[in-house]
Design a protein that fits this description.
The protein is built from 13 helices and no strands. The protein has 328 residues and is mainly α. The N and C termini lie close together (9 Å).
């Protein structure tokens, strides 16, 4: 049994300290944090992962049928299947809801942790917070993607106009657009954490993203890139059996035979591990989200010193003891 010491959010941290704080937070809150994720975001996440795994399996079965039959009608039957498009639509919807739920659970958990100074947090408390803020996050994501789509069409018009003048001009315009898009996406990555901790609307939070990230874009990009690599590397472990089975099938095709129809056992293994891959990927999406929260507090402290001012205000006052004294 260890004494529990809550992590102070409002601190300036260098890159390594932000990484350490991220993993320390996850280690300290492992049981209650991931329990909240599984209970609240788990149902749509699991159903969406099952559908996505089944869609991938169905696609490679379609490739195998094409190899064996060489019949053009196979393509028409596959593309024209109402069941296929219903599965795609439902999978996208469930994964979208799961993504919004994950964002909401992560930042509401961090809000409760900061408020209560304990890692013994009940799922029902997080659910009450999520229930109240879910519409805000949902609206933010819809508005964010709507603006991206509008910007995309405007950019296409610019590139087409540039292409009418010169192919080289169109090429440089396309490169500039890609760079600009990456810059905006990384900058707006702080949008949800700002909304969570500052209760700002979409446009106020977006404006604050650009203010906070000024001169710190590369450190934010590096944090997202490294933790996204960790996320993808761990989740990819569950694809190893799928790749082994696919490799064996490909070797058979190279030797001159068509793609073999997978046995029931092979298909079951493929679907299980593809489902696990999507499920773990969603759960580990919490890694960059938590890291972005520590980046947000770091940037606020560097630019506004809110944590320092708060500590100055509490000088001479008795410190409150944390509610929990155990660490999971």
């Amino acid at each position: 049994m260890e004494n529990f010491t809550p992590i102070e959010f409002h601190q300036a941290r260098d890159f390594s300290k932000k990484m350490n704080a991220t993993f320390e937070f996850l280690k300290q809150n492992f049981k209650s944090f991931f329990k909240s994720l599984l209970y609240l975001a788990g149902p749509p996440m699991l159903l969406g992962s099952i559908l996505a795994g089944n869609l991938y399996g169905g696609y490679f079965n379609f490739v195998g049928n094409m190899s064996r039959n060489q019949d053009p009608d196979v393509i028409a039957d596959y593309i024209g299947s109402p069941v296929l498009w219903a599965e795609i639509g439902l999978a996208v919807l469930l994964m979208f809801v799961a993504g919004v739920m994950i964002v909401s659970v992560v930042y509401n958990y961090m809000l409760e942790y900061d408020a209560s100074k304990t890692n013994r947090i009940d799922v029902n408390i997080i659910w009450e917070r999520v229930r109240k803020t879910f519409p805000t996050y949902l609206g933010t994501i819809f508005l964010y993607w709507f603006l991206l789509v509008v910007a995309y069409f405007l950019v296409v018009l610019v590139i087409v106009g540039a292409a009418a003048l010169s192919p080289f001009l169109a090429f440089f315009a396309a490169v500039a657009v890609i760079i600009g898009l990456i810059y905006v996406v990384i900058t707006m990555s702080l949008l949800f954490v700002i909304q969570a901790f500052e209760r700002k609307n979409f446009f106020e939070a977006a404006s604050r993203c650009f203010y906070l990230i000024k001169d710190k874009w590369w450190s934010t990009f590096g944090l997202i890139f490294i933790l996204s690599m960790v996320q993808s590397t761990i989740s990819s472990i569950f694809l190893v059996p799928w790749y082994i089975n696919f490799f064996v099938t490909m070797m058979h095709s190279i030797e001159g035979g068509p793609f073999e129809e997978p046995s029931f056992f092979q298909e079951l293994i493929n679907n299980i591990f593809m489902t696990l891959y999507f499920l773990v990927s969603f759960l580990l999406y919490a890694l960059p989200l938590v890291a972005l929260a520590f980046q947000y507090f770091n940037l606020v402290e560097l630019k506004e010193a809110k944590g320092l001012l708060s500590r100055i205000d509490t000088l001479g006052k008795p410190a409150e003891s944390p509610k929990g004294d155990e660490q999971y």
